[in-house]
Specification:
This protein is α+β, with helices and mostly antiparallel strands. It is 38% helix and 21% strand. The protein is built from five helices and five strands; from the N terminus they run βαααβββαβα.
Length: 153
């Protein structure tokens, strides 16, 4: 697996991963309609392209390392090789870096992809910022398990 900067052409794959992840992680406490409406709005490809081009960091995890490398067991079939993504930006209103989004395809959960993305985010901002914050739905057991498993508080 390899983490790289997102490119504008990754927007559709990111949206696909977001939709699958939202349904898997939030489906027990948000309606299907609410999830689809939110993903349609927040992850519209043109909106994602603007976020990718803006200040901050939008990273993607590729399934098999460098293009053409042999795999690590993760199949990235319909997402152009992308199996996860993270979106981070400095938020002056809170005075630190905020992890706005981190999602991995549900069929690749618990394979170390989210941890690799979070590590890449930390390495990118460690020299300039002391803290990284995020928000997780209290009902999101998957997200809470991930964040708590990183030693974050």
């Amino acid at each position: 697996m390899h983490v790289r900067e997102a490119e504008r052409g990754d927007a559709e794959a990111i949206a696909s991963i977001a939709r699958a992840s939202w349904h898997a992680a939030y489906g027990e406490f948000l309606s299907e309609e609410a999830i689809d409406a939110t993903v349609d709005e927040w992850y519209a490809p043109e909106t994602l392209r603007r976020h990718i081009a803006a200040a901050g960091a939008f990273l993607v995890a590729m399934a098999h390392g460098e293009p053409g490398a042999e795999g690590d067991g993760v199949d990235a079939d319909d997402a152009g090789g992308i199996v996860g993504f993270a979106h981070v930006r400095y938020a002056p209103e809170v005075g630190n870096v905020v992890l706005r989004r981190i999602y991995v395809r549900p069929d690749a959960w618990r394979e170390g992809i989210g941890t690799a993305l979070l590590g890449a985010v930390a390495r990118r901002f460690v020299d300039d910022h002391e803290r990284l914050s995020t928000v997780v739905f209290a009902e999101n057991e998957v997200g809470l398990s991930f964040i708590n498993g990183t030693g974050s508080r």
